Amino acid sequence: MTQDYWRWPESTWTSKDIDWKNSSTITAGVDIGSNSTQAVVMCDNSLFGYANLRTGPDYRESAGQAMKQALGKSGMTIRDIKYTVATGWGSRNVAFAQKIVDEVNCHARGARFIYGSSVKTVVDLGAQTCKAIRLYDWGRVSDFMMNDKCATGMGRGIEVMADLLQVPIQEMGERSLTVGKDPEPVSTTCYDFANTEAIGLFREGYKENEVLAAYLFAIAWRIHGTVGKVNPEKELAFTGGLAKNAGIVKRLERDMKMTALTSEYDPQLAGAIGAALIARDTVEKD
User: Fold this and answer.
1) Percent of the chain scored above 90 by pLDDT?
2) Residue 180 CA to chain centroid, in angstroms?
3) How many CB atoms are closer than 10 A to CB 262?
4) Rounded to 10 degrees, what is the CA torsion of 92, 93, 98, 100?
């Protein structure tokens, strides 16, 4: 059986402690990206359920499947949800959403839920883009920057590299940190060229973990340039799938002399959590 090294493990969870029937407001958020889809259900201000799944070829079907798995066997249905907000690349395909909100505001809101209300700098590391988001003290977005180069050098590029090296994607970050000293970063993170360069490094005698280090170092340096443009605070709140790659996060901490905040929540859920919270705000305003 062929192993999909590039595929992140999927995850779902539904609370057994919250009595949703006694909740005053039930809202949902769906973040549908090019690679993964997250659905979150919130009862009042508490997380009730979530699903983090691979995005399939049909965005509508992916959104529906994620929501179904977030609800689990709780007995709740989409009809019980008061309001749903969609975000992400495929947000227009979430048929059951009442509103679409941009990713920047959703990730900003979700990051403050995950990491706390003191968050002022959010770094969203997704499959296609890196977004650096600066917040006012009260949480509103004051500025943001997006990477302006080849998008394939982000999460999608790492997936391709995982398959090339036959290393499970969830292990790449930690393995890259086992090298004594980082080698020179690859000259490009666009995977069409980076793959060729990686093969060249093997031929020069580089070991597998050294090639990983060279590639992730290059991505971290590229992110560094984007984050530096928003005058970041010393504490960074990372969101998105690449926030789970320790090889990138720890290199950014080292090179930017900053600290990555930690949380029990999956940072990849930030966009969907933010969308669900914005949905709740909308209900409360009506």
Assistant:
1) 77
2) 29
3) 12
4) -30
**Residues paired with 132 in a beta bridge:** 123, 145
CA-based torsion, 242, 244, 245, 249: positive or negative: positive
Exposed, middle or buried, 29 (CB in 10 Å: 0-12/13-18/19+)? Answer: buried
Range of the domain at 126: 121-260
Edge-to-edge strand list for the sheet holding 46-54: 11-14, 46-54, 36-43, 26-32, 83-87, 99-100
Angle CA(38)–CA(172)–CA(243) in degrees, nearest 5?
40
Average pLDDT over residues 25-44: 97
- Number of domains within the chain: 2
Average pLDDT over residues 32-58: 96
Please tell me the predicted confidence (pLDDT) of residue 149: 58
- Looking at the DSSP assignment, which residues form a beta bridge with residue 123? 132, 238
Residues 126 and 113 in one domain: no
Q: Measured at the alpha carbon of residue 185, what is the angle toward residues 192 and 176, in degrees to the nearest 5? A: 95
**Residue 85 within any structural domain of the chain:** yes
Residue 3 lies in a domain: no
In the chain, the N- to C-terminal Cα span, in Å, equals 53
The reply to whether 152 and 249 lie within a common domain is: yes
- The verdict on 19 and 107 lying in the same domain is yes
pLDDT tens for 107-139 read 999 999 999 999 999 999 988 889 999 999 999
Q: Any bridge partners for residue 270, and if so which?
A: none
Residue environment code for 48-62, b if the CB has 16+ CB neighbours within 10 A, otherwise e: bbbbbbebeeebeeb
Name the token pair of 207: 């070991």
Q: Which residue, among 39, 33, 77, 36, has the nearest Cα to 272 in the 3D structure?
A: 39
